[in-house]
Amino acid sequence: MSTENNGKPFFENPNAALREIAQNPAAYAHYLADFHRFVLDMQAKLEILQRETRVHCRGTRVEGDKMGQAFLRSFPVEKSLNDVLKNLKNATAGLEKSAHKRHAHDEKVKEVKKNRKEKEQLKARKNNTSLQAAPENPGQQGAQSPNMGYGGPMSIYNLDHRESA
After folding, report:
1. Contact (CB, 8 A) for 82 and 50
2. Is the pTM of the predicted complex or chain greater than 0.90?
């Protein structure tokens, strides 16, 4: 990639720019946001065109028309514009969804890397540590030491030295 003005395009391969955009989630979102703005602008203009077309087509009457014939003639034109607008709304929703999915993909990749690293560390710790017996506590071999207080194990039958609340 060079920025020299020697007549060559910025990218030798026209798909190289899109390849770089696909690799960067922020650039991907920005690129799709540009398309989203364009589609929304087109949608707004087509909605105005739809209203004006409806008014004109329904108002165009031919001598001898019965009630509703102008509407029936305008219906196919209105339906075609309604279909285009519906498809544009689906396109804008798809663009937004795609940008979110791309960001979620990168987050998931980072999470997978982190989880694998943690599992690897756990496995390494598990393999490196030898089994050690727990040290025995001589104070808990059946005989209770005097004056244990509230912290020691007690039976409900041995509560004569404690006061109730």
Report:
1. yes
2. no
